[in-house]
Amino acid sequence: MLNYVAEFGLMRVLVTWSSKRGGTAGIGRILGQELAASGFDVVAVPVREVKSLAGFEAAIVGGALYANCWPAAARRFVNRHVRQLRRIPVWFFSSGPLDDSADRRAIPATRQVSALAERIGAQDHVTFGGRLDRQATGFPARAMARKKAGDWRNADVIRAWASKIAVALPTARAHPGWDRRARCVGRLLAFGAAGWAACAATQLVLVQSVARAPALVVHAVAAPFFFVLIARQYFGQPGPRDPLPTAVTWTLLSGGLDLVVAGVVLRSTNMFHGIVGTWLPLTSIFLATWITGLVMWMRPRD
């Protein structure tokens, strides 16, 4: 590595993280200090302070795990800078286990983090122990703190991983990243359209069989049920989009298709005047999709 530095100059490395309670930030700073001591030009900052990756030749990205998911800020950072991250070698790290399990065995990346790593072609991922103060506020942190408060970060293990990266950096090359089919916009819209079609068919059958008022009520109850089933299929695939933008997209798609039917087929927008007819189903579609996606992400990897 010293020969590399002498010939080419300092290699600029970004170490960045998203941390709600400071534990992951501490890991990021240790990694940055170790790499700097090995002769690299290191910038160690939270993801919110990184505006561009221009000039960086490698990156280490980390996030705290909450219900098996990185914070939204870390996910947005990766998705916003996909093209730049695919051009340089990148390493991922997570923090979270509130016990010594991370020291006893290698803990694989969660479903969500694994999909992000695959998307940008990360070189490696490691999970370190987490930290939770006894005075933690908010639910469920306060409840967890009663039984699992403590600092499970192992500085020696963190430094060892940094040293491993320091050895690999001079010759490391970017790994190819790729998007799974589930992330395709067409596939995202197809799943949403399938959910809307099931709702529309149900409503059509109901209005021909029973009175309009009970038909609308049954449709409002059936809509989230259909979208839970659709969401389970979509989020069960490798590499789906985040639950929140997926829920927003499917809700807007359903509302847009309802508007087309109202204007072109029914030639009336009366269906939008009642809460039960349109606004309640659309709200339930959003919540059903979003919550199902979050639950699917929380599941541990097989």
Secondary structure elements and pairings:
Blueprint: H1 2-8, E1 12-18, H2 23-37, E2 41-46, E3 58-64, H3 72-80, H4 82-85, E4 90-95, H5 101-104, H6 111-120, E5 124-128, E6 131-132, H7 141-148, E7 150-151, H8 155-168, H9 185-209, H10 212-235, H11 243-266, H12 275-298
Helix pairs in contact: 2-8, 9-10, 9-11, 10-12, 11-12
Describe the protein in words:
- The chain has 302 residues and is of the alpha/beta class.
- The protein folds into 2 domains: 2-171, Rossmann fold, CATH 3.40.50.360; 181-298, no CATH class.
- It contains 12 helices and 7 strands.
- Helix 2 crosses helix 8 (155-168), helix 9 crosses helix 11 and helix 11 (243-266) packs antiparallel against helix 12 (275-298).
- It is elongated, with a radius of gyration of 24 Å.
- The two termini are 38 Å apart.
- Residues 1-8 have low confidence and may be disordered.
